[in-house]
Amino acid sequence: MTTKTSLLILILLIVIGCSEKNKSEFSYYPNGQLESETRHLNDSASIFLAYYKNGILRDSMPLINGYLSGRGKNYFNNGKLEKDCYWLNGLPNGAYTTYYQSGNLMNTVNYEDSIKVGNAYEYYDFPQKKIQYFGNYAKVKGKSWVNYQTWYDTLGNIKKTTASIRSIHGSKIVSLQDSLKVTFDIEHLEYPLLRVFISDYDEDYNLPDKPVTKVYNGIENTIVAYITPTRVGKQTARGYIQNYKVIEKFRDGTYKTEGKNIYWSYDYEVKGKQ
Asked: Are 200 and 212 in contact (CB under 8 A)?
């Protein structure tokens, strides 16, 4: 056997091996119509495609090591998009958008490891994209926390709402020697009293063993708070606003409250020498 022949055989074996490794898998309906297909792109990545009996694409889902990872899409049997969402290791992670069968937008939401976070919107089945529901969510200790919600009628009027943060404003840059003044404007109060808690929360709103916590009371719909920088660089302040009322007072000066918490975060940067 010559060197040239051996080389050709080796190349052929490599091609056959790659074809076997990256080959597609198929399943069929009883009538022989293609039902699903898994296209293997490499050792870890593949695309799963599923079809309706009429041949229209139903699902297009990316897989990494057998788990949904990447941008997936689902379709109605009329070919219109039903869901457009992002996945990571089998869990929703990122933007998640759904549509009515008419093609109009139904809702938008964001997920972080299957936990609903940020702003969520639901819309009426109108081409004008009229809001039916708005909600704000935070990831608190591994779970989704509902900060505030508002429901609207078809004319855009508020049907029902909860206390919410209208704005958080202050400087985005502060020197290490100064305090950062932050103002919270709250609307739709459900209880008469307001206060804000600022502490050493991590991204999941957990506290260290010895946290430093500050509490500022509000006046009417506004709370003014101050953040004391301890190091230079980009940072995020975290805490929660409590809209509450006192339902019972005790002799030792403490009291029992009823209310709701709204979790917040504020990004800023500290300049100066450490």
From this structure: yes
